[in-house]
Design goal:
globular, 83% helix, mainly alpha, 4 helices
Length: 82
């Protein structure tokens, strides 16, 4: 497998997420990116990287990132549910 830069993977994910309001597609992009990040990073670290990027994106562009943030929070809640 080719080496990848985690930051580039996250940036590409944020770009794709901002281009759509389709919640299922956003969830797919986020899940796919988390999977890639977990190849070289523990799950906790991957989640922190994504959380930081999403919250930063939401602060900088609230209008376009609202759905992204909502989907992210829902995914986190599902992952924490017993």
């Amino acid at each position: 497998m080719a080496e990848f830069n985690p930051l580039e993977v996250i940036v590409e994910c944020m770009k794709k997420c901002k281009e759509t309001t389709d919640r299922e597609m956003i969830a797919h992009y986020l899940s796919e990116t988390l999977g890639l990040l977990q190849i070289d990073n523990p799950e906790h670290d991957a989640l922190q990287m994504m959380d930081s990027a999403i919250r930063s994106e939401a602060e900088g562009d609230q209008e376009h990132a609202a759905t992204l943030l909502q989907v992210w929070v829902e995914l986190q809640q599902r992952n924490c549910a017993p």
